[in-house]
Amino acid sequence: MAAAPHPTSHPEQHLEQSPEQRRAADIIRLLMLYRPLLDAFIIDFFTEGLWAQLPPAWQPALASATPTQLAGLLGDHGGPGAAWPLSLLAFAAAARALAFPRGCPEGSLRPPCQSSHLHPLLRRHVKPKKQHEIQRLGQLLQRLSQATGCERVVDIGAGQGHLSRFLAFGLGLSVTAVESDGRLVGLAERFDQELLRELGKARALGHKRPPRGCRTPPLRPLTPRAPQHAAGRLDPAAPWGEFLLPPNPPGPGPAARNPLGGPGGSEDGGRVLVTGLHACGDLSPALLCHFARSSAVAAMALVGCCYMKLSTAPQPPSCLTGYPLSASVAALPGHQLSYRAREAACHALEEYERRLRRGSTHLRAHCYRAVLESLICTADPDKRHLGVQPGRKAHALSFLQYARLGLPLAGLDPAGVPLDSGAVGAMLEQQHKVVAFCTLGQLLAPAVETLILLDRLLYLREQGFHCALVPLFNPRFSPRNLVLVAARTPLAAVLAGLDKDSEDGDSSEDEDLGEVESPKEGQS
User: Fold this and answer.
1) DSSP state of 257
2) What is the reported pTM?
3) What does the pLDDT read at residue 321?
């Protein structure tokens, strides 16, 4: 592994390149220098001797670093008493500079238990994190609707319909929710009917005025306009008029009609907005390709996730390939991303930094899992990388308890494995090294996510569309917070003042912090 990033480039490589193209090229050069670090699985820390693969100049400083000092390396805050080698500082500075800005994680560490900016009826069945996301994405889609004159929205991968309900009942938009899981479609329709019943009761009783002196801003009255639901799967290779495949599993009733126009599509054939909140894996690239193919889609706002599920294929790129999509990225040597690199892009950097600063016991889960992997491979090398997860509360267990839960999951009898040996104790004493190695991977992770999202942005730019990446959600409790916004007309008016909306919409006056889902134990 190289000791310091010193990428070389030729002047002609930068001629007529956009800033996004240059950023993508620089990220790839950085990743090529540190690919062994990027592609390493933390569970292989002991089985593959990952610590010895670090640059020798880095090892003493990292081995003696406290969790707080490691957090400073992540956040560019220094850290008390940290004396890092210049090559390590250069690596960290390059990784931070090339990653797309994620916004300021201000306010509370967790989303409010109940958002005061959503109508109480729209908060039902919705976790705090999701409340924050649908309220912020709804604001953006409302701006796109006003700018394009489109009041019809198609929500792809709608799940239980939380975003669709907010757009329809809360903002008065005409919404079609498309979901591949027929069971979730039924659940979404049930929630719609519940809301309609409650809305009818409230109207029968008359609207109540808020008490005098209430500081909560008045909420927009709900409209009795429920979203339409369609059970179907997006076919990335189909012609535009054959947009939907049958749901999975197939359900009773007629086949879903294409909500985006064309043969078998909507009756009026008008233009629509398309959105996907955490469109998983190849669903995001498929949406981008359909947007590029059809003039029926005026604009879109897309939040991706699960990058490790993206399909990859050799050049030339096509809409059947999740990464790369753009000709710009596909033409760059070394653009390939391994499964591990794409998995790392699903990071929760702010949460990991917070755990370092607090010295959280959650950090021991990485070491526990690495020791368990060593024990499993020693007992049976064929059982390597079985995906064993002994539980979400691993940090609250002793290693003996943890191993007794994990070994049976690998088909091994704990009684036949020396859990109290000196070798096991020696590995557990290296927890600080495991945490330091994991921290280096966290430094690179945002740059990998940036590359994937830049590839999508450049693909749209190559088709002649206006697009931007916007840090829409608070990254502290919504790690996938970058939204790709695209339109056939300029976006300046849509994005102007969006930060101010964020400040108004995320008031810290909301009370009663609720629990928020954390990354899985042992997950980097």
Assistant:
1) P
2) 0.87
3) 80
